[in-house]
Predict the structure.
Amino acid sequence: TLVRCGKNVPMHVMIPDGVKCIESEAFSDCESISSVVIPDSVNTIGDWAFSGCKNLTSVRLPQNNSLVLGDCIFLNCVEIVEIDIPDGVKTIPYGMFEGCSRLRRVGIPESVAEIEKCAFKECFRLMDLQLPPDLKKIESEAFSDCKSIIQLDLPEGLLEIGKGTFEGCTGLMTLTLPNSLTKIEDGAFAQCLNLNKLVVADDHPAYRFEDGMLYTKNHRKLKACLLPPLKSISIPDGVVRIGNGAFENRTTLTEVHIPESVKEIGFGAFCSCYRLAGIHLPNGVTKVESRAFDS
């Protein structure tokens, strides 16, 4: 077991073959490291093991089918440009690459079924990404602020997209929702200001996309507005809830017509719509969540 690196860590680290575990924070904030080779004998890498290694550019992960990965392993490793996750890994853990601002390419194996919260958050340059065919769940904020992703193919078989999963992905232009998708949490597409092509099949069992807006199939929940910049929008009658961040940062919007059917307005629904001069709330509205109209 490798517990903790010493004070004088070389630039190029080769962990000896035979080591089975790299403990939590073992190399955390070791700014002298530029490359690390981890042998196939390693079957566990602990939480924050290499977090804050600001000059780390090259990582060779072990090819080990029983590899267990901790949370935030490469948090804020700002110089990593590309990395391949070994085959056999089933989950990309919480915050694994969060803040890796220069990361451009990640190889994700077909074995991965879940991408946890904030896994790629603020990977501003990430653009070369192929999601695996057996992926079932993408958790909250997993790709938030990944501003360089232009197109992403969500695999058939994906069941759930978490809250704020693609929030702030301002480069994202095209996305297809698979028919397997049964749950999209509020704010999943907040501030995706250039997402102008959302493909949802007419026979999708859970969602529909009409006139630039994404709804649940029964039309009761408005999940996201993906219209080009407009001054005026009319929400159709029948909508009961306007979801979190549905119109966030729609800076050209000056007027919104909300139907009498609406009962709830979600967190940050109209946040940063600073040209929105006034709005009439129907008498039946029973819940307005925080920051709904923050400018």
The longest strand covers residues 221-225.
